[in-house]
Amino acid sequence: MLEVKDLSVRYGSVEALHDVSIKVETGGLVAILGANGAGKSTLLRTISGIVKAASGNVALDGTAITGLRPEEIVRRGIAHVPEGRGILPDFTVRENLMIGAYVRRGQDVSPDYRRVMGMFPAIERRERKLGYTLSGGEQQMLAIGRALMAAPQVLLADELSLGLAPIIVRQVFATLDQVRRTGVTVLVVEQNARLAMKFADYLYVLKYGRVVMEGPRETFAKSTDLVDAYLGA
Ligand code: ATP
């Protein structure tokens, strides 16, 4: 289980997160909703060790990982698909995927490579193509595939739907569901509440850096007006 407890983060005088606590059960798919600037990316970046917490804790299966370097956090089993995908445009699809396995130096990663390729047929067909030649949806699949090459226990995914056509977004989320069914715990940040409610089993709403609502999918489905109000829709 991934557990975040009373996490606060500051950028200078801006408090981006205030006493945020969330739990993601092993094998679950949890979504964090929130408007622009609510602190969603900051939450994922702090779990990944890219941003330092002012106070609070992050624990994976009961072991504190707060303050560890990002590379060590990947090694402990948490991989991050960043907002904007962050794929390397001038490297091939294969090279991009292999970069995801950099923390596993010395291990045979070919079974994972084949497994990831099997999960993303559109990418498999473009194995030798350069990153920039891929469509937005394919780049997003590549970014997820790269994270999976770290053989994570937990996958963090930031705004996967950004800039993608609705039909492609549904494909990307269907893939996440497939990832979860392989036993990987998934935590997604999403502005598209309807979409998140379809796939997540538990959701949180962040507003101005605080958790203002949380509950299982069924509760959210009954409170769409409230969710919309929090998201400013
Ligand atoms: P978005 O959907 O726009 O990415 P978000 O919910 O992910 O929004 P964050 O990006 O986490 O929100 O930002 C939370 C708050 O922290 C905002 O007020 C933002 O302006 C501020 N912030 C984020 N990154 C930095 C930074 N590097 N330096 C200063 N302030 C920052």
Automatic annotation (TrEMBL):
A single Gene Ontology molecular function, please? branched-chain amino acid transmembrane transporter activity
SUPFAM superfamilies for the chain: P-loop containing nucleoside triphosphate hydrolases
Biological processes per GO annotation: L-amino acid transport
Tagged with keyword Signal: no
Q: Which InterPro entries does the entry link to?
A: AAA+_ATPase, ABC_transporter-like_ATP-bd, ABC_transporter-like_CS, BCAA_Transport_ATP-bd_LivF, P-loop_NTPase
Keywords attached to this entry: Amino-acid transport, ATP-binding, Nucleotide-binding, Transport
Q: Which residues cross the membrane?
A: none
Residue ranges occupied by any ABC transporter domain in the UniProt entry: 2-233
Q: Which PROSITE patterns match?
A: ABC_TRANSPORTER_1 (PS00211), ABC_TRANSPORTER_2 (PS50893)
State the CDD domains in the record. Answer: ABC_TM1139_LivF_branched
- A family per Pfam: ABC_tran
Task: Name the family.
Answer: Belongs to the ABC transporter superfamily.
Query: What is the protein's name according to its record?
Result: ABC transporter ATP-binding protein
Q: Please report the organism this UniProt entry assigns to the protein.
A: Reyranella soli
